[in-house]
Amino acid sequence: MGCSSCGTTPGGCKNNGHCASGGCNRLNTYDWLSNVDLPDTYDFNVIEVSFKNGARKGFYYNPPYLRVMTGDMVVVEAKSGGFDMGRVSLCGELVKLQMKKKRVREDNFFQSVLRKANERDLEKLQEARDTERDTMIKSRVIARNLKLNMKIGDVEYQGDKRKVTIYYTADGRVDFRELIRVYAKEFKVKIEMRQIGARQESARIGGIGSCGRELCCSTWLSGFKSVSTAAARYQNIAINQSKLSGQCGRLKCCLNYELDTYLDALKGFPKRADRIETEVGVAHLVKTNIFKGLMYYSYRDQPFSKLYQLDKERVHEIQKLNKQGKKPPELIDYQKVEVAFKSEEEDDKGFVDVTGQIELPPEERKKKRRGGRGRSRGGRSSGSRSRDRKDRNDKPKSSSKPKSDKPKSKPKSDSRPKTGAKPKPKSKSDTSKNKTQGKSGNKKKRFWGKKKKDK
């Protein structure tokens, strides 16, 4: 697609921002020999041409006088008459490998390349591509009105606009004789109906998969292989139809990509090891870690039973004992575990436990100084100020009330009356003394007053 800021367009399909397929990497092939200056000892006169940005490809005879190279737009003969236009995707020796891959013989009859496409041919091809969407919408409406059980997925015009190919999917056979009459009357061109599968339909339409990338079938995957749920079982994937199916509604093709690796890893695992017997009870297989070679078992009879992790060699041993009519005491062989643990301790001779032997000094928190190092306030250095502050912090905190210089009086004896004795009534002199003490609140003033009175 074209860049909106600078107006440049990348390589890709060379459609300059008008690609209607949803992606520029659609079944493309890279001719890595086209830019290499090597003399051709044997000139191969068959080329590969792609139509509609890689939706369809074919092999055509290239006359030696045309000198067609990779990337050129050419006009070729059509099988049903007329001509078609496409882009050369491969030429030279690489076409032999492509024909061998698709099992096409070199001595077959191929339609020939007529000429290189000129400006008028390219304008006509663009007009045909612009009318394909409207044609597809009208054809769907007509098929729905005739109540035919079919789904129209794509429409492709020939380069000269004399023929249109309608691709559809259906569960069974469809009688579309009446449909073709209506299409020919509506579009006034030659109609060809071609039934394709669901995977071919998604390959032609394109899209983004659950992995975040373009669909494999629309970018590089040219051959389809059957996919079954057994591939998901071998890889320990949960059989969830919504997660395992792709945009075509069938199982994802990527389930076959790593299947051979899983099958090679499963060769060393014991077979029919869903349940093994011990003296504790019958243990059932819960899950398997294929690449680590581990199997997890648990006892269903016991409540809150934990998972036991066993190697595949240990499961082989228990199976041999069960065939002989014997039962191991437990799933895990703790004697072997202890021997392995002791060997690990002997190997680690360089490690010494120094817990309690080395004690580190407690960390001293450095107090932040407010002033600079060399500054002093009032002729005092910062070091003297910090010492004074430390001494001040070491002193006990004083109470808020001022303390007198005289020592504290001894605690008076308990003057409360004993049980059974009546409290003595207070005299007037005692009440007057309490009043004077509450007002003054200072013992020194009260003592001086007495002295003055005696004088």
Low-confidence stretches: 1-6, 17-23, 398-406, 431-445
Mean pLDDT: 77
- Work out the strand percent: 15-25%
| Rg, nearest Å | 48 Å
Q: What's the helical proportion of residues?
A: 25-40%
CATH architecture of the domain at 124-205: 2-Layer Sandwich
Tally of DSSP helical segments? 13
CATH class of the domain at 124-205: Alpha Beta
Quantity of strands, as a count: 12
Q: How would you write the strand order of the largest sheet?
A: 2-1-4-3-5
Q: Terminal Cα separation, in Å?
A: 119 Å
Query: What profile does the largest beta sheet have?
Result: 5 strands, antiparallel
- Secondary-structure-based class equals alpha+beta
Determine the CATH topology of the domain at 124-205.
Answer: GMP Synthetase, Chain A, domain 3
The SSE string, one letter per element, is EEEEHEHEEHEHHHHHEEEEHHHHH
Q: Name the CATH superfamily classification of the domain at 124-205.
A: K homology (KH) domain
Shape descriptor reads elongated
Write up what this structure looks like:
The chain is α+β, with helices and mostly antiparallel strands. Among the domains are: 46-117, no CATH class; 124-205, GMP Synthetase, Chain A, domain 3 (2-Layer Sandwich), CATH 3.30.300.20; 225-265, no CATH class; 269-340, no CATH class. It has helices at residues 94-101, 119-145, 177-187, 198-205, 216-219, 229-234, 241-244, 259-265, 312-323, 334-347, 382-394, 428-440, 443-454, and strands spanning 46-51, 56-61, 73-77, 83-90, 113-116, 151-157, 163-169, 190-195, 275-277, 282-289, 294-299, 308-311. The strands form three sheets. It has a five-stranded antiparallel beta sheet. A four-stranded antiparallel beta sheet has the order 9-10-11-12, with helices on one face. A three-stranded mixed beta sheet has the order 6-7-8, sandwiched between helices. The radius of gyration is 48 Å and the shape is elongated. Residues 1-6, 17-23, 398-406 and 431-445 have low confidence and may be disordered.
